[in-house]
Amino acid sequence: MLKEIGCPYNFKVLYDKRTKIHNVYSNQLKIIKNADYIYGISSVITEDYADSISERVKEGTPVELIVPLHVAEELKQSPYAEKLKILKNYKNFQLKSKNEDLKMGLIVTDKCLALNTRKAALNMT
What we know:
Domain Methanogenesis regulatory protein FilR1 middle: 22-117
Structural class: alpha/beta
Organism: Methanosarcina barkeri MS
Number of helices: 5
Largest sheet: 5 strands, mixed
Helix content: 25-40%
Number of domains: 1
Strand order of the largest sheet: 3-2-1-4-5
InterPro entries: FilR1_middle_dom
Distance between the termini: 29 Å
Order of helices and strands: HHEHEHHEEE
Protein name: Transcriptional regulator, ArsR family
Shape: globular
Oligomer: single chain
């Protein structure tokens, strides 16, 4: 992939496709925790993701997320519905849904860009 896009300034690969999913997941939670703003696309949801995002929003961090409809529907269920109801009152939080299967995860912050792709459906809950 680097051959196609070139080597960006101050860039390093933290994990590649051979890395266990848990390492990628842990790294994403660290990225969220240390961000001054968060823009993202997520094709999965977990309680840890929801808690991390919720915490950052309550601290004043701007967060904009795009999720596919199946994740939007999952967010209407417990334990996410209660958190989402609270977050909707924060002006620094935006959640949008897309009517297609987004087979990727993307986190863009002031400090990091993280991109994950997948071939098959993945449910980490």
